[in-house]
């Protein structure tokens, strides 16, 4: 099997996550990509205690990695503008493909970097630069390519969303929540990029370019932070049926493109108004598809690595497959499908909602509880209503913990055989979907 | 510029939508694809009153189209298993790439079709087969390729979700809402495929295969419909903090794969529990990325066409571009970027939330309203609170209709100049995000 050789620059949070995901999921990734993706070298000043890099060559000099003739793809995860830019341009110069998670670099220097990449015939991929693990760059560049995009709006800074969620849910003041976010590691010691909207403006600049087909123009983005928001306004907004979110909004009008980051009232029943905590979401509205939404973790070690590695798979597929076989029909190579069996429903596991109509007499609940516990079924919650007028039966509603379905089938048969129970037991599955 | 020649089989809802989107967005699509996508022939028994097909050759014989040597890509939009299967296999035999929206065909005959396509070196694309315009096939096959997928769960039948939404929100009975759905055209005269979960099981079968890398096994999917759900259970679920949704669930366990479609209680605060009406959403949980969600229109003329045409762009890019240039960095070809200007914030349009602290005396509201109306600013809602204890000021909260920002800036300056107004006016933008 062919192997694509990768060099990782930077072994911090995202670099470490990328290394770990490539290692842990090596087999799954090879089944998808049709080739192996091998970390041939790492450039980092320090090791990462969360990574076992035994066996992988490490250099302290990123420029040594970038010029290493063995390496096909350079992964830039050091951040910032200066060295990162030099490093990426040098990698391109040496004919390497580049994967980066660096939103600031792409938003500010992307036009120049992409032009050099075109000249040299290499790919520069940057899915991880916007909304972490959510494949929203791919959704817009490829999934919605039929559409004239009308507008997009995103919660694209997790720190800001965490602060606003806490302000709303707990009535806390901005400064107070910011301190907690810093303690939790969600916000930097200098939180300016997050709370003043600069990070969001970097990401919005990128999204607007791929949505409308315009050059990157970060310097023209309007940026307003959340530092001046008060709990009074959060509460008034709530009373009017709105939530306040820190949004990046890009809209196409006849006159041009609106490109703006600011706190925004959104009707509380919109899906995006219910995206809370550090989570990210981007709405994209196209003339054919209407409104779509993409939701997930916008930052963090492995969510961001998920996007970096997906870019690596894209590059590997481009390098090693014929165009018509680039993405196999089922996503995995045809000769690498698994024989994992489909389980019969009796072997599936779920929690269950049960509705039982019981006679209103003592001891029924004890009998029901005994039947369930004998089959290893634990009760999570129970609700008993008053007797119904006509028949004197008491509706008893139970929600169980997770259990294999055949045990529930067996319990239902035993319950229905009780004299105290009338008619069939209603059974509906329950999933937490965490 | 190169041209990729497409033949559309079927000019019903989706076929008509595909034709119209390709025509209306021809320029935008060419800017993205790097080539034009031309409808060279249509096979249809009837014309579609929503399509102006003047100038496009039409045949009544799909097999004439499929063997037409001019055509590069056959778009199968006739539906069903029998003729559709024959047609797709014949197209592959003749070396044509195929794009289809036919979930039943892929779920039941996909293994055979994909094997033939591999032998002939052609692409079979089917994004439109699952969740209409939402690019969820692409998200799983490419966007999440770094992950070992743990589970996925989707609302993937709009008719069923419409019925459950109406039952919950309006306390209506299943039969009653089904009749309305049929009258509105959401449900077929024979609603079996929708309400018994067969349509959802087709789609779930496809999603599970691409998530776990297993062959398509529709016959092993457990399928339970929504016909037996009562409003009593919908209400009890609500009282326990849950919503009932008709979900397709696929989960990887050590023993195998759970593949099941059934009504499901979900905690009411989950994002997917708040996907209402005919909308679709799919949650995908991967070991690196965690939980992600994809939301949009799951059916309809142009949403489905959006996915069909995105597949055509994918095929066109594979045929006409070098691998490293398949998807241009900004999604549009570098020489096709637009010069659309970024608007200064004063030229952007939004609705506004204004908080004004006014003296508690007569005539203030009239002055405020006059200042706004003189600048063409209409008030959507107004909320006046009691005077605050300390200073006797009355907080007055206004939400305006949409207006250009410079008019609001001007109004705020005028408001702040009033003797009756204390301090600065708080201004937050409002977006409906429909």
UniProtKB/TrEMBL annotation, chains A, B:
Molecular functions per Gene Ontology: homoserine dehydrogenase activity; metal ion binding; NADP binding
Binding sites annotated in the UniProt record for L-homoserine: 188
Record-level GO BP terms: methionine biosynthetic process; threonine biosynthetic process
InterPro entries hit by this protein: ACT-like_dom_sf, ACT_dom, Asp/hSer_DH_NAD-bd, HDH, HDH_cat, HDH_CS, NAD(P)-bd_dom_sf
Cofactor(s) of this protein: a metal cation
Catalytic center residues: 203
Keyword hit for Lipid metabolism: no
Sites where the protein binds NADPH: 103
E.C. designation(s): 1.1.1.3
Pfam families (UniProt xref): ACT, Homoserine_dh, NAD_binding_3
Domain ACT span(s) in chain numbering: 353-433
Family matches, as NCBIfam families: PRK06349.1
Identification of the protein by name: Homoserine dehydrogenase
Organism: Pseudomonas flexibilis
């Amino acid at each position: 099997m062919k192997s694509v050789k990768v060099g990782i620059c930077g072994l911090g949070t995202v670099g470490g996550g990328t290394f770990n995901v490539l290692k842990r999921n090596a087999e799954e990734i090879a089944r998808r990509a049709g080739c192996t993706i091998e970390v041939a070298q790492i450039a980092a000043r320090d090791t990462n205690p969360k990574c076992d890099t035994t066996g992988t060559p490490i250099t302290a000099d990123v420029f040594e990695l970038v010029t290493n003739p063995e390496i096909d793809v350079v992964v830039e995860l050091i951040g910032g503008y200066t060295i990162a830019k030099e490093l990426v341009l040098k990698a391109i110069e040496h004919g390497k493909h580049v994967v980066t998670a660096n939103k600031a670099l792409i938003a500010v220097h992307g036009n120049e970097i992409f032009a050099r990449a075109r000249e040299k015939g290499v790919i520069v991929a940057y899915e991880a630069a916007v909304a972490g693990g959510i494949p929203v760059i791919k959704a817009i560049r490829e999934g919605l390519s039929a559409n004239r995009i009308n507008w997009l709006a995103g919660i694209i800074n997790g720190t800001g969303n965490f602060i606003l969620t806490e302000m709303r849910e707990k009535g806390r003041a901005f400064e107070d929540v910011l301190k907690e976010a810093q303690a939790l590691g969600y916000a930097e010691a200098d939180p300016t990029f997050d709370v003043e909207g600069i990070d969001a403006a970097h990401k919005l600049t990128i999204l607007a370019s791929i949505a409308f087909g315009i050059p990157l123009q970060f310097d023209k983005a309007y940026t307003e932070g959340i530092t001046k928001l008060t709990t009074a306004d959060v509460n008034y907004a709530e009373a009017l049926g709105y939530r306040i979110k820190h949004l990046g909004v890009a809209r196409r009008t006849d006159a041009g493109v609106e490109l703006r980051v600011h706190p925004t009232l959104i009707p509380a029943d919109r899906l995006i108004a219910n995206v809370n905590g550090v989570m990210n979401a981007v709405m994209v509205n196209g003339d054919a598809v209407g409104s779509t939404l993409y939701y997930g973790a916008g930052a963090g070690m492995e969510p961001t690595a998920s996007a970096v590695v997906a870019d690596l798979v894209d590059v590997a597929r481009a390098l090693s497959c014929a165009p018509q076989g680039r993405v196999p029909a089922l996503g995995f190579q045809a000769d690498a499908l698994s024989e994992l069996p489909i389980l019969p429903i009796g072997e599936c596991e779920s929690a269950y909602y049960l509705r039982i109509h019981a006679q209103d007499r003592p001891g029924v609940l004890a009998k029901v509880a005994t039947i369930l516990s004998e089959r290893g079924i634990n009760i999570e919650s129970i609700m008993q209503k008053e007797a119904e007028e006509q028949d004197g039966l008491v509706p008893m509603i139970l929600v169980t913990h997770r259990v294999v379905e055949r045990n529930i089938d067996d319990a239902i048969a035993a319950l229905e055989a009780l004299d105290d129970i009338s008619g069939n037991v209603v059974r509906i599955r329950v999933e937490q979907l965490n």
